Amino acid sequence: MESLDRFLTAVSRPLNPWVLWKMDPVKFPIYSYEILFISMMLAIIGYIVLSLLTYRPYDLDKLLHRGEETAGEGTAGEAATIPWKSPAGTG
Questions:
Q1: How many whole angstroms separate alpha carbon 46 and alpha carbon 39?
Q2: Predicted confidence (pLDDT) per residue in 17-32, tens digit
Q3: Segment 60-73, tens digit of pLDDT
C-alpha cells in the first residue's frame, strides 16, 4: 500500500493544487471522473497508435466503384437514372 501511495503522490505532484492523490484506508484516492478521463485519453492514444501501426493504403475509387473499374459498365461519368414513382404509386 505504501508503494501505491508513493506512486500516486509522484504522479499527482505536477498538478498539486488541483489533484491530490493520497492513499487513505477509508476511500480510494482517485475520483470516478478522473478515472473516466484517464481511460478516455488512453483509449484515444491507443486508437491513434494502432491506426498508425496497422495502416494499409487502399484505393478509394475502387471502393466507390468509379474510375477504371467501371469502364465496362457504360460511359464513365454517366449518372444512373432512378425510376421515380408518383406519390400514389401508380407509375
A1: 10
A2: 888 888 878 888 888 8
A3: 888 888 876 565 55
User: What sections of the chain are H helices per DSSP?
Assistant: 2-12, 32-53, 60-63
- CA–CA separation, 32 vs 15, rounded Å? 17
Look at residue 3 and tell me whether its pLDDT is greater than 90.
no
Task: Pick the closest to residue 1 from 36, 39, 28 (CA basis).
Answer: 28
The 3-state DSSP composition of the chain as helix, strand, coil percent (nearest 5) reads 50, 0, 50
Question: Cα separation of 4 and 25, whole Å?
Answer: 12
In whole angstroms, give the CA distance from residue 77 to residue 73. 11
